[in-house]
Design brief:
This protein has about 500 residues and is an alpha/beta fold. It has a domain at about 90-110 and about 230-465: Rossmann fold, CATH 3.40.50. It is about 45% helix and about 15% strand. The chain has 20 helices and 16 strands. The strands form four sheets. Strands 4-5-15-10-11-14 form a six-stranded mixed β-sheet, sandwiched between helices. The protein has a five-stranded parallel β-sheet with strand order 9-6-7-8-16, sandwiched between helices. It has a three-stranded antiparallel β-sheet with strand order 2-1-3. α6 links the parallel β7 and β8 (about 185-195). It is globular. The relative contact order is 0.14.
Length: about 500
């Protein structure tokens, strides 16, 4: 029996996997979910000697069973073969206090590559298998890493167009340069005078704007998304949790069935939600630890059950986590409430209209069974980068350092701890160099070379000479003008 996806907000809004991937977001603004996720059961007893690609094929087949085995195998090969620095795709590194799962070995040096390289292949395959006679327009908001990874994944993919919006002065110089130098005939990149939440909210509003969608339809274009609200981006991220467990099994560090912890730096809640999915399908996870920066709206929620976005938006040295509206939390609310669509819809309306919501005690207790939480200030993040380097000669980026600080605050000695490392330190050289050697006035590109000279950590090839590339995207608009921008620019790509 084929998996049927439904909206988190309305059980009657349904789609098969192919439609859910192509559409990205439900027509009512909800996120697509499988009601009986536990039926996507995965056998971990035969996991020990499997490589990344095999695990990926098996996980994708569980969730996307309207794709044939051959189609999934082809998607996996096209997404990963020869595109990552290491054959393991996501290698795991032992340090004194934890294992670090390196998710940044892809073509843009960020964890988003794992999901977005696959999403572009799934989208292309879905368009082909459905004999689609239209183009897909992918609208994406980014807090830094999603943008470049999405652009790289969908660059020149047939029957797709992609427009990426990012917050002006809200990403690192390296992240911005990665996006502004992106080539490809089917894409646009634009800065907005606002923050990530402004961009993400505006895009979600466009997905339920019937007049806007009708205008696109006249041009034979349908909307989709590359953010983790798209189930086709989220499911591939389950794989690296399972693969990390397989690596520890192979190394003899754990026994089959032994529980482990994952500590995850997260802002939009997609990365850690993939871990929750992994647990639901059978991976022995003791706790998923949600690590936040100074914008700790998720920490407050897991502690109190109150999600309140009515607070100052703070710019931190971990900008990809500077988020106050965590879209993927909606999926967790769906499962934690017993798949109560009406309840989730009411919570989302409260968040939109009042700026906050509060879950019931039962829902909060259910969430706290699986999740722990903590947060790190800028100063604590910097101190952690320095401390880990001095102890292990390992360089953390300022997002991974947030997670490592949370681990050290309350380290579980009874279980193996795996910290998810989400980006190369060279994407944030100013913050990393300052933490290790003190503040200097050099630009981020000069600091790359200095950081390499001092640490001997290799600069990723995609970042080595990025400052010498031609800037091809220079648009900046007000956040209120995003709809007009899309309608104007979609004709050019």
């Amino acid at each position: 029996m084929k998996k049927i996806y439904e909206s988190t907000r309305n059980r009657n809004q349904k789609a098969d996997a192919t439609k859910a991937i192509l559409q990205g977001l439900s027509d009512d603004g909800g996120l697509f979910v499988v009601r009986d996720i536990e039926q996507c059961s995965y056998d971990i007893t035969k996991l020990k000697d499997k490589d990344y690609s095999t695990i990926a094929e098996e996980i994708l087949a569980l969730f996307f069973d309207d794709f044939s085995k051959e189609e999934i195998k082809d998607c996996v090969q096209q997404a990963y073969l020869g595109k990552f620095e290491k054959d393991e795709i996501t290698p795991i590194i032992p340090l004194h206090d934890a294992y670090v799962l390196e998710l940044f070995r892809g073509p843009t040096s960020a964890f988003k590559d794992v999901g977005l390289q696959m999403l572009s292949q799934l989208t292309s395959s879905a368009l082909y298998k459905t004999k689609a006679d239209y183009d897909v327009l992918i609208l994406t908001a980014t807090s830094g890493d999603t943008g470049k990874a999405a652009l790289e994944g969908f660059k020149d993919v047939e029957h797709t167009k992609i427009i990426v919006f990012y917050p002006n002065d809200g990403v690192s110089k390296v992240q911005e340069t990665q996006m502004k130098t992106q080539t490809g005939k089917n894409l646009k990149v634009c800065a907005i005078n606002g923050n990530f939440d402004d961009a993400q909210t505006a895009i979600k509003q466009l997905f339920v704007d019937q007049e806007f969608k009708a205008t696109l339809a006249k041009q034979n274009i349908k909307l989709s998304s590359a953010n983790s609200i798209n189930i086709g981006r989220l499911v591939p991220q389950i794989v690296y949790y399972v693969y990390a467990y397989a690596c520890l099994l192979k190394q003899g560090v754990i026994e089959v069935g032994e529980e482990v912890n994952f500590i995850v730096p997260t802002g939009n809640f997609g990365d850690i939600l993939a871990g929750y999915f992994a647990k639901q399908i059978g991976l022995p996870i003791h706790k998923l630890v949600c690590a936040s920066n100074d914008n700790h709206v998720l920490y407050d929620f897991i502690q109190t059950g109150i999600y309140d976005r009515r607070r100052d938006f703070l710019k931190t040295i971990s900008p990809s986590m500077d988020i106050l509206i965590s879209s993927n939390l909606e999926r967790l609310l769906y499962y934690a409430s017993g798949c109560d669509n009406a309840y989730v819809k009411q919570l989302m309306e409260d968040l939109s209209n009042k700026g906050y919501y509060q879950v019931t005690d039962d829902v909060l207790k259910t969430i706290q069974k699986d999740f722990a939480c903590g947060y790190a200030t800028n100063a604590e993040t910097e101190n952690t980068i320095k401390a880990v380097y001095e102890l292990d000669r390992y360089v953390l980026d300022p997002h991974t350092a947030v997670a490592y600080k949370v681990l050290l605050d309350d380290k579980d000695q009874e279980h193996k701890n795996i910290v998810l490392s989400t980006a190369s330190p060279y994407k944030f050289t100013d913050s990393v160099y300052s933490a290790l050697y003190g503040k200097v006035e050099d630009d981020e590109f000069s600091l790359m070379k200095k950081l390499h000279q001092k640490t001997n950590v290799k600069i990723p090839k995609n970042l080595e000479n990025i400052d010498r590339l031609e800037i091809v995207h220079e648009d900046t608009i007000e956040k209120e003008d995003m709809k007009k921008y899309v309608l104007d620019k979609v004709k050019e790509i």
